[in-house]
Protein: Fe2OG dioxygenase domain-containing protein
Organism: Mycena belliarum
Amino acid sequence: MFSLRASIFVRTGLKSRGLATVSDAQPSFRIPLIDFSRFRNEAGADKIKVANEIVSAFKESGFIYLSGHGIPDPTIQKAFTKSAEFFRMPTDAKDKLAWEDPRSNRGYVRIGRERVTQATDAAEIAALREKAPDYKETMEIGRDWDSVWKNRWPQEADAPEFKHTMLGFFQLCHELHVQVMRSIAIGLGLEESFFDAKIQDQCHNLRLLSYPPMKRALLDNEGQARAGSHSDYGTLTLLFQDSVGGLEAQNPHTGVFVPATPIPGTIVINVGDLLARWSNDVLRSTLHRVVAPAAKPLNAQEVITPARQSIAFFCNPNFSAEIACLPNCGSEAKYQPISTEAYIVGRLTSTYS
């Protein structure tokens, strides 16, 4: 199904020898694997080449696999371990940390509370949530020094080292976000530091996700998924996956969803709606979803899907930043300017109302 060499190619069309091929009539869908160490450690032509590769991928598919990203594997594994320990806490202890306000976007979200979708009408989203809620639980963490909105941390005795681990991980993800945004700036023909002052407030969201094992029959309802088809809200999403899989991206040319199979040592990065809007749709915000992987027999009548963990770092511009058509992204803006806060809070309000 895949050839994991320099990049991942997902093609629709004829198949030969177990590898997907492509017909002339159907465009291919490509998620390239890019070694970011060449950007972090090089200068001149090599650095520009990597920047161009990233921007080209974001124009075509909106997704990349990033290796050589600089976040040590033991650090990532510890974040996964502490995330798993948090979700094993008693339900009543987690519920005391419940998510309360879209302006804060912090705290625990129990199974069934969220229904990600492209719909923007609150009533429509509520109906979808009632019919087919996302089968996952999450913990949302923001910048910890915010003077207004506070993170909702568990007691240290309930989740040892959780706060310390997640604050360190949050900072490393922000630093990677800065570097990737610098590569985007270069790839768009802007000054490398163009975005620096527009993302320095760290108005991001670190989301820990737990997808419990579940009977496969529960996913057979119309519209049901572990996380429904959606695009993300901000600039970029840094996604750390376990080995279970389930993430699928939609080929924008054919509408077919194709697996973004986990590759050890890489982070999946995709463009969010605000960056697409900022770039006048030069960069593509691609629909994606999380479905259940192959199920295992539970008994003669039922099968069960395995548990899945992931960690998503949703990168946002400063909440005060005005998102208006970037230089070099067309002479006529498709969208009216909007502040980051107005856009993000509006989307969250619709999602959770």
DSSP finds nine helices and 20 strands in the chain. The chain has one domain: 29-352. The first strand starts at residue 7 and ends at 10. Confidence is low (pLDDT under 50) at residues 1-26, 115-120, 124-132.
